[in-house]
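quick one if you have a minute, typing this from the bus. theres a chain ive been looking at and ive put its sequence and its fold in token form underneath. please have a look and point out which stretches look like helix strand or loop to you. anything you notice is useful, everything is just below.

***
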Amino acid sequence: MSEAALLAEFVEATRTHCEWSILRETLARRQRVHLAVMVEPHLSYILQGKKSTESRFSKNAIAPYLQIGPDDLVLLKLTGGPVVGCFTTDAVEFVNLSASEFERLRTNYSDAICADEEFWAARTHKRYATLIGVRDPVELPASVIAKSDRRGWVALFSPTADVAGEQQSLL
């Protein structure tokens, strides 16, 4: 299923929940929308305000690397479960990882990411990092999205990538 079709189906599924108006308002402003697949306890840490920076590390330059910016909306989906919340992005940093950059991130962002030594050990061979400031996290009524692939991050809507007709049909 394409990203546009996935988003259209999700918008329709949440239409009866007034709490989900944040999604429709974001689309009306033509701002980017992303889906982040997350594990516990990190998803709860974001919703509780404990985790102030979401991070994504990868061997290849894949989403959200160079595909996200300030004021985007990130939907939070529990791995194997529903979408349960969202946040607005604050500052975003894209990093080509070297040994010194990796150590800088570990030193400067461990607390904000809620990262322990096991977290960092699992990322030593990654080449790219995206650091995303979390602003205004909101817990929302759980809603299922028909995502079935293994991607941990999906750019659902970008005003420069989608045709206007597709975007307008979402509202």
